């Protein structure tokens, strides 16, 4: 099965971090989030990928190139004008048509067996299968609803017409399997959304659109709170995802686990790190610094006596001597 990763968004909820760093390159445990998506697919035998880009695309392509270093082949599609989810998928039709294919957002993490999703899709004879998750979400007041057979009968934001009563209400995870017939519902070269423009019409027309219920770990990391949470969950071992390499030696600094330290960091003996702290490569942690519940990208400098808590610090940020930094999201000037 082929797959498409939707990666053309601006990452507005993570600004200012994404003003000069494209969202697919935002690090999670010191590796670009897009790399995690690629490895999820590759690990399940999916290595023919199409990825769309819009914001700062050349920075992404320079890192991944044609995908060979990551065990996959990547077709890149740079959108001069952003096309939305449906427009982006339609733009990739020549790479995807011919058989059912998988589409996923670049900012979701899930402990999921995609072969089970594919088998469910085939068993139901579905044109579209959305992977759904129960629980609290931004759409909790208007969730996706399915009937007892798993067929989707209502989408958020779309008035229901004769919708059957159901207690089965879920959130869309951003992972889906599509039959090529979905292309008939997508306009070419214009901005359009799958959940707003395409899926509701397919349901209205009576096409077999189903929901596969995912009961294991899933998170959308497109905003600061969930970005913090994915790091906490990985450090805690809540997910099946494991660290790609062990934490570097912190020297004689005080460490309150869990903490993960990147390569070539300089940490003063009097510094205090943790809990739930991640340092990217090349960070410099000064005398008597304390940092907790914080994700630091590459090349961070925390000068003497700095206090940092519950923050996200982008590449190259410096926190000055004796500065207190709480609940901050900071990016260095370009």
Automatic annotation (TrEMBL):
SUPFAM superfamilies: Nucleotide-diphospho-sugar transferases (SSF53448). It is an enzyme of class 2 (transferase). GO terms for molecular function: mannose-1-phosphate guanylyltransferase (GTP) activity. Keywords: Nucleotidyltransferase, Transferase. The keyword NADP does not apply. It comes from the Bacteria. Residues 2-236 form the Nucleotidyl transferase domain. Its EC number is 2.7.7.13. Residues 255-331 form the Mannose-1-phosphate guanyltransferase C-terminal domain. Belongs to the transferase hexapeptide repeat family. This is Putative Mannose-1-phosphate guanyltransferase. It comes from Nitrospina gracilis (strain 3/211).
